[in-house]
Write a structure and sequence with these properties.
This protein is α+β, with helices and mostly antiparallel strands and 261 residues long. The chain contains 3 helices and 9 strands. It is rod-shaped and about 180 Å long.
């Protein structure tokens, strides 16, 4: 009989892998994780405080009130803008009215002065006169010219209207000699037209003339021609400040302005 030695059994055993079991294990883990999330969500919903029953309705009402207040705010802004514009228009209109009232007050004051002046002319003790030069007054202007104001009156015939032209000359001293400055020279033009007058009771005639430099005025000779009447009157040279005779200043200005009142 053979006494050959036996081989020892191997130390390692080769076992075939089973991938399906590993896949099932991962699936079981995933299912358990999803179930745990569902349990957590359910517990949160269960233990969370319940919302009051009327909260949704109150929130809806708040939204409605907010919308209402926003609309009212826009309407108030529009109204403020309209009121501002209306106030601006009212202020402009008020200024125009005040300006018009001031003009009317000035006109009324002038008319009252005219009435008072005429009352003095036709007073019970005042003698009645035909066409007459009541007064003349001069005032120095900025440009070197002299502004004159001559008042004509007629109180003899209240129904008559006096029509005609006015001219005047200024008499005084020039270079130490007596001199007379005529109408054309006063206006610094040839054949200067006379100043028209037309009135029933009285008229104030105004204008501007130029006197030669160095000329000292003393008298004013006024001539009225028209309606078959010829009036020549000489009045003293008077100024508007104190009525004193004044010497003309040196000036080369030739501005001329005539105005019938």
């Amino acid at each position: 009989m053979s006494n050959a030695p036996r081989k020892a059994p191997p130390s390692f055993v080769i076992v075939q892998r089973q991938p399906r079991r590993r896949w099932l294990l991962w699936l079981a883990v995933a299912v358990a994780w999803v179930m745990s999330l569902a349990a957590v969500w359910a517990s949160c919903g269960y233990f969370a405080p319940e919302r009051p029953a009327g909260e949704s309705a109150a929130l809806h009402r708040l939204h409605q009130q907010l919308g209402h207040y926003q609309e009212r705010h826009e309407a108030l802004k529009q109204r403020v803008a309209t009121l501002k514009r209306s106030d601006q228009i009212s202020r402009v209109a008020n200024k125009e009215i005040q300006s018009a009232l001031a003009e009317r007050e000035d006109e009324i004051a002038d008319l009252r002065a005219d009435v008072a002046f005429y009352e003095r002319l036709v007073g019970a003790t005042a003698p009645k006169k035909g066409l007459n030069v009541h007064s003349s007054r001069f005032e120095r202007e900025v440009g070197g010219t002299w502004r004159y104001q001559i008042v004509l009156t007629q109180t003899l015939n209240r129904n008559a209207i006096s029509l005609g032209e006015l001219r005047f000359s200024v008499e005084g001293v020039y270079d130490g000699k007596l001199a007379s400055i005529g109408w054309d020279e006063l206006h610094q033009k040839r054949a200067a037209p006379g100043q028209d007058y037309s009135f029933r009771y009285f008229q104030q005639i105004e204008g501007s003339v130029m006197l030669p430099p160095g000329f000292t005025p003393q008298r004013v000779r006024v001539s009225l021609r028209g309606d078959g009447a010829a009036v020549d009157q000489t009045l003293a040279w008077t100024t508007s400040d104190n009525g004193a005779t004044a010497s003309s200043g040196d000036s080369t200005s030739d501005a001329i302005t005539n105005k019938d009142s």
